[in-house]
Design goal:
This protein is of the alpha/beta class and 659 residues long. It is 47% helix and 20% strand. Strand 1 (4-11), helix 1 and strand 2 form a beta-alpha-beta unit. It is flat and about 100 Å long. Residues 324-335, 386-393 and 524-544 have low confidence and may be disordered.
Length: 659
């Protein structure tokens, strides 16, 4: 067994004590120590700054600058090396001072023995390991946050052109003059949706890893759902000259309750893989239901006659970035994410997936899901007839009203406009939030207001979030629906809190667009919403003209919180760190409220609260934290209350009303 190498910095000006310490170290047989010996404080500080050692043994008596001063100065300069203080005599006060200054242990040379020395060294090494793990965890968390921001940006940038591709293809499909090219247009639409699915695959792993993944369950017609999947995948099978078969082993429910998007994603991924790795023969889909009093499962199996999977890879194919083709074939490309994502999503659906395979014979993937409560649902032999694509969109009822469409991208504006005009709506356009505000106010003045506004979130000049904040502050109650590509958890609630009446995701589905518009234009709904908005505005303006200093280092959190506070009628100024907050308070101390984030880049929020209470004694100070803060901690540091993240409009309203 190889010995562990540990770098020791020994700061000792007595040669006899140096020899004695080395003797103790040599008796620790499980370690090999690489010792750097210095006998003065200047050299010690220079080496401690470098953080190259695993432990420092620091003598208290060093001449001009004692060990306690070295300890304090090294910590102030960013030293992370665990330091054990050595002294020649028992001194309880010195012992406590050393530990308070950051020493991990305190050893008296006259009482020192082998066992005591060994324990101190092992404890210091354990502290070092824990600190290293903490730093690595912080690095990993920072890296994950950067990745999440990148993926959110990527999602927005890719979903915008997909909106145009899918939307215009849908328009062409509904045009009677294009009957001759319906199959080609349907292929564009299906592949566009598949491209959207690939984008979702990349984002899903990030959501799962961050704990932000969630399902959206709803009732679905199982017959037409499977038929649509089969029709989409049969084109790929036909292109390769193989048969795609589907059969049932039992009577099936006509309706199930699940996340249709996720189930479709899993089926398409597994069937696509089966077709991809099958050069001749067939791919067969089997579906059956296994019922038990407490545990009903809906099973799917996909069997192919393809290349098969080596036995040694069967245990790894559900891990990210594992690709069978790396070993078996170089003819197929892929991300290696699909099966991993399927496996993780199935866990959320109370299911699991397994595989059986033989090289050169084929593979069989079997998975099951919880179909929801289907006790009273009719069972029958399903025919898997594909739902008519045009049935949903061509039978949409006519609507009436004036709609303003706000989006900075011309293609998207026109696309939504075409859809709205097909519903018989009068359409007007704006290309940013500022232009939208001008048009909405002008229409109000001319006594011909818009009945509905469809507004993109990300726009130049003035984005959707700031625009709606200004509109609601002006008392304009027109229903406004957000158009957004953002799909992360919490976005919808955030937009509702800002004052949006509803949210439509990109790429836009024409049927969903019609339903959302219809709900907002319904006179009864509008009356109810109007009453709700009036009541809300009364609440929002109860605290008008209060001045709030918001100290928050996260730009996004600061922006959202400031918008919510502004909507309540408050005047808000943001400081992104303690330094900026102090600069503001040097010239302006007239604040009624101060909101402080617990963890700031240049200090702790609670400690800052103590200082601010002296500077602005009449201000009510609130600590905003991701963890619970005790009343004792608040009282000790002069803070009045605490808010637990994430902060929303209702929380802020309640908080300000209580003060």
């Amino acid at each position: 067994m190889s010995k562990q190498v540990t770098r020791i910095l020994l700061v000792e000006d007595d040669e006899d004590d140096y020899i004695l310490t080395c003797d103790y170290l040599e008796q620790m047989h499980n370690h090999h120590f690489d010792i750097d010996w210095v006998d003065n404080s200047n050299e010690a500080l220079a080496l401690l700054k470098k953080n190259n050692h695993d432990i420092c043994l620091l003598d208290y008596q060093l001449g001009g600058l004692n060990g306690l001063s070295v300890l304090k100065q090294s910590n102030e300069e960013g030293c992370t090396v665990p330091i054990i203080m050595l002294t020649g005599q028992v001194d309880i006060e010195l012992d406590n001072n050393a530990l308070d200054a950051g020493a991990v242990d305190y050893l008296v040379k006259s009482d020192l023995n082998r066992a005591r020395f060994n324990r101190a060294i092992r404890y210091a090494l354990a502290r070092k390991d824990i600190e290293n793990e903490r730093l690595e965890r912080i690095k990993a968390e920072t890296k994950n946050r950067s990745k999440d921001r990148f993926l959110a940006h990527l999602s927005h940038e890719l979903r915008t052109p997909l909106t145009s591709i899918l939307g215009y293809t849908e328009l062409l499909l509904n045009d009677e003059s294009n009957k001759g090219i319906q199959p080609e247009l349907a292929t564009i639409l299906n592949n566009g949706k598949h491209l959207l699915g690939l984008l979702n695959n990349v984002l899903d792993l990030s959501k799962i890893a961050a704990g932000k993944f969630e399902l959206n369950r709803s009732p679905i017609s199982f017959d037409s759902f499977i038929a649509d999947v089969y029709t989409l995948m049969s084109m790929s099978a036909k292109d390769k000259g193989i048969n795609l078969e589907i059969s049932t082993k039992s009577m099936l429910p006509v309706e199930i309750n699940t996340d249709s998007l996720r189930l479709r994603q899993i089926l398409i991924n597994i069937i696509h893989n089966a077709i991809k790795f099958t050069q001749q023969g067939s791919v067969k889909i089997d579906i059956w239901l296994e019922e038990a009093p407490e545990n009903t499962r809906l099973y799917f199996s996909v069997t192919d006659t393809g290349v098969g999977i080596p036995e040694n890879l069967l245990s790894t194919i559900f891990k990210p970035f594992e690709q069978v083709q790396d070993i078996v074939s170089r003819n197929e490309e892929g991300t290696g994410l699909g099966l991993s994502i399927c496996s993780e999503i199935l866990k959320y659906m109370s299911g699991s997936i397994s595989v059986e395979s033989t090289l050169a014979v084929g593979s069989k993937f079997t998975f099951f899901i919880d179909p929801g409560i289907i006790t009273t649902t009719e069972r029958k032999k399903l025919s898997f007839k594909r739902s008519d694509y045009q049935s949903n969109t061509k039978s949409l009822s006519k609507l009436s009203g004036n709609v303003l469409i706000v989006d900075d991208i011309n293609d998207v504006r026109r696309l939504i406009g075409y859809a709205c005009q097909s519903f018989d709506l009068n359409v007007d356009y704006a290309n940013n939030g500022q232009q939208a505000i001008t048009k909405i106010v002008s229409a109000q003045d001319l006594k011909n207001p818009y009945d509905l506004v469809l507004m993109d979130i990300h726009m130049p000049v003035l984005d959707g979030k700031r625009a709606i904040a200004q509109l609601r502050e002006m008392g304009i109650e027109t229903p406004i629906v957000a158009i957004t590509a953002a799909t992360m958890r919490g976005v919808r609630k955030e937009l509702y809190d800002l004052g949006f009446n509803d949210v439509i995701p990109k790429p836009i589905d024409k049927y969903e667009l019609h339903q959302k518009i219809k709900q907002q234009l319904n006179p009864l709904n509008q009356k109810v919403k109007s009453n709700q908005t009036t009541t809300q505005n009364k609440i929002d303006h109860q605290n008008t003209h209060q001045r709030v200093l918001l100290i928050e280092d996260d730009a996004d959190s600061a922006e959202i919180t400031a918008l919510l506070l502004s909507r309540m009628g408050n005047q808000v100024q943001i400081a992104y760190n303690i330094k900026q907050a102090n600069e503001i308070l040097e010239t302006d101390i007239h604040w009624q409220y101060i909101l402080i984030d617990m963890n700031l880049p240049d200090g702790n929020g609670l400690k800052l609260s103590s200082t601010l209470k002296e500077q602005v004694p009449n201000a009510k100070i609130t600590i905003v934290s991701g963890n619970d803060v005790t009343q004792q901690e608040l009282t000790q540091h002069g803070a009045d209350k605490a808010l637990l993240k994430p902060v929303n409009l209702a929380m802020l309203q309640q908080h300000f009303n209580e003060n």
